[in-house]
Amino acid sequence: MKNQNTVPKKLSFISIYFLGINAVIGSGTFLLPSTIYKYMNLSAICVLLCTAVTVSMIALCYADLSSRFTGSGAAWLYSYNAFGRFAGYELGIFTWFLGCTTLSAEVVALLTVLKSFLPAFKNNTIYMSGIVFLVLLFSIINFFGRSLVKLVNNISAAAKIITLILFIVIGAFFIKKANFTPVIPAAALKGPVPFFKHFGEAFTPIFYLFTGFSFIPIAAKQMNNPEKNIPRVLIAVMTSVTILDCLMLLVAIGLSGYKLGSYSNPLASALKTGVGQWGFALMIVGMLISIFGVAFSASFNTPSLISSLATEHAMLPKWIGKKNKHDAPWVAIIMTAILSLALCTQSYLFLVACTVLASFVQYVPSILAVIKFKHSNEYPTHGFSLPGKYTIPIIALIISCYMVTNFTPKTLLVGAVVGVVAAACYFFIDKDKDEEKKHEDFLASIRNKDFKF
User: Fold this and answer.
1) Is residue 188 classed exposed, middle or buried when 0-12, 13-18 and 19+ CB atoms within 10 A define those classes?
2) Reported pTM
3) Most buried pick, 137, 269, 290, 386, via CB within 10 A?
């Protein structure tokens, strides 16, 4: 007979690695090469490498922080310990918002892929019905079938890795050297300002290709030896994804050349150019499975995050963390579904920008937390120590601040609204907690008087 009190098996290094790959490689890998190429042509590969170095510096900061803590939560947990409860609360809300924008972007990406071979989805009514159906489907599964999460994650991770490797290997045989020109758009060569404008326009979507790394430490408690394994996984995942993305973009450009910038499904259309219709079909199937998996994973992790803020850390009202008989946080699932549906009305590129902005909001406090802990010697590291003391955090901070210049006013406004609304809610939540504490103290005083009497 199976012992009911058996402790669940912790995730090993390999399991965490594949979870990391699944978190980082999403719809952007399949849909953004056209946008990236349009702004920088062949030089986009250099921009990709620059972005990878930048994100790797931030990932190293996360590696340093994850080596100091074994608890779940990532950015909000680090900020909470470094700068107090309010900072942790704000980062927690932004992490939830990041999860919602990721879910929405993946849903929109899924329907964008469907449009390429099912013209019916070009009809706005059918398109919006598809969005509602997918978000409700994910919510219902989370209500009743959360045991499917691991299976879907594994299938999705395998599908995207196999799809990318097949694209690179097959496509490499059909590359045409003539497609590697022009190296850089003529408009970007008119001066420093146009160049940096084009560079920045390519930088933001490329940055989106790597943002998922910040989700890796969120479930640290479920991992074996997290303070040692998470830093190693972060480094391994960033290295693997950088190599795959560079090869992918190089092959895509070699197959399509200047036409790449006009494709709505760049990788599928590029492989079709090389091998024909079966290549297009192969990529579409792989993309659908992988994007569905990322969306499903986001729909599962995002409600769990806001639920934990309510139940485990008392940063939100307890009712937000309520669970049903299937141990699913049903209130948090509904809240996530509502916000995600509202965000799905926006374009894919806008959702990408919002995701990058929400990531940026997490990165800056986390980088500052590294600097503080190194200065104060609080929370010693276990198994990983960031080399160069302050050098990497300062460079990462400067480059992160550069990201702000690439956001549109609309994106910055959304970020400001999220921050202000969260702060206002925090004030009322704290007020409610104060009133509740006063009431409990009052009842306790009455009970004490009755006892004395």
Assistant:
1) buried
2) 0.81
3) 290
